[in-house]
Design goal:
Length: 406
């Protein structure tokens, strides 16, 4: 009941790719995982063998959370709460030798503002397994209903064989579960779990926290068929909303417009995780190589140092005919409509999960401007139906899309 499906945004972290060995002994979640989505040229996501991935999307509303460590330094937990964060995973240690100096403060701080909390440990299979497990047991004490289960962060193999890594993960999980009376969560990436742990089937009963930075849905390793938590970005949870729009030109090119935003020096535009261009806030022109409808688009606002400080997302149809557009206009706010529609399509309605939306611009559900602007109150995947009518009120076109509201 607490968190059936959840999405995790890593708070103020930068993705670091290191070797699977023990070079750095102060890692946070994701430091050893390079689980970025790979794509062909504007096409489907691929796995390491060039085969299309099987992606698993949430089957309902999702809840926003973060993971934190000492690398965020002093955290203003009230601000985190006000940003809509419902829960936080807090790093306890990197292995047996490096305890997180901010764990106690973060553990208490999250609790003080009503953020649901859980502890995670970056697991080192070459270090004493029982010592690591006992650190988690001691930190939790008596497991409190309402807290999240403890997490073993599996992303380092220390040069050991997959069977050995799997056995030591099992040793940690069994010891912690026996002491606390709750099944630990497994954090990992698809390829690390498959190649360095061997995808052991015995962990299927444990909840999966999957790490994969993508605007699409994640693909997950065996033995799991669904994820419970998804670390979908290493971008700041407090990133500002970034409004953007586009027009298709007569020659088939697209002009993307991104207004200036505080702190944004450059903007990246990505379609299905494929970088289509970088520019200073204003305009960017791009020609798509393929005509495809229903494509995820994201605008990332970068500071002068390259940090992501603003984000916007939507859906684009890169086709010449009448097309659906969905673009972010403000926090949780999107404009949804039809472009290049025949003049006989005089109004547009948008329903979400069966209910009609009221356009913020016209205060009507049947919009004569052929678009509806709406601010959502719930995050996660929302099922959109875009309905066009003619002057007589007859439905002349219906299209469906799924929008990730975040």
């Amino acid at each position: 009941m607490l968190l059936v499906r959840a999405m995790i945004a890593t708070c103020l972290l930068v993705l670091g790719a290191s070797c699977a060995g023990e070079i750095n002994d102060d890692n946070k979640a994701g430091d050893n995982l390079v689980e970025l989505s790979e794509t062909d040229d504007e096409g489907a996501a691929l796995d390491g063998n060039g085969e299309t991935r099987a992606r698993v999307c949430a089957d309902g509303a999702t809840t926003k959370g973060i993971d934190v460590s000492k690398w965020q330094e002093t955290i203003n937990w009230t601000s985190v709460k006000n940003a809509g964060v419902a829960y936080a995973f807090i790093r306890l240690s990197d292995g047996a030798n490096t305890k997180d100096a901010r764990f106690a403060a973060n553990w208490a701080g999250a609790k003080s503002v009503g953020i649901i909390r859980g502890a995670y440990q970056f697991f080192r299979p070459t270090q004493n397994v029982n010592t690591q497990a006992d650190m988690m047991i001691a930190a939790i004490g008596t497991y409190q209903p309402g807290d999240l289960p403890p997490v073993i962060d599996v992303e380092a193999d220390g040069g050991l064989a997959p069977s050995t890594v799997a056995a030591r993960v099992r040793q940690w999980v069994d010891r912690v579960q026996a002491a606390l009376g709750v099944k630990p969560i497994v954090y990992t990436g698809k390829y690390f779990w498959r190649d360095e742990v061997g995808s052991p089937a015995s962990f299927a009963p444990n909840a999966l926290w999957i790490a994969q930075y993508t605007t699409l849905c994640p693909d997950i390793p065996a033995p799991w068929s669904r994820w419970t938590f998804w670390q979908y970005t290493d971008k700041p949870v407090a990133a500002a909303p970034l409004a953007f729009s586009w027009t298709r030109n007569p020659n088939g090119t697209y002009t993307f417009n991104v207004p200036a935003s505080p702190g944004v020096a450059n903007v990246e535009l990505r379609v299905e995780d494929f970088l289509i261009g970088t520019a200073s806030p204003s305009t960017l022109t791009y020609t798509f190589n393929v005509a495809v409808a229903n494509r995820v688009i994201e605008a990332r606002g970068l500071s002068s140092s390259g940090a992501v400080v603003a984000l916007g997302n939507g859906i684009i149809d890169s086709i010449s005919a009448s097309a659906v557009f969905v673009r972010q206009t403000n926090e949780h706010e999107y404009e949804i409509g039809l472009e290049r529609a025949p003049s006989t399509w005089t109004t547009v309605e948008v329903s979400v999960d069966g209910g009609l939306l009221t356009d913020l611009d016209t205060n009507t559900q049947r919009s004569t401007r052929r678009a509806v602007r709406y601010q959502f109150t719930g995050l996660g995947n929302r099922n959109l139906t875009i309905i066009a009518r003619n002057a007589a009120g007859t439905i002349v076109d219906t299209r469906t899309r799924t929008l990730l509201v975040r």
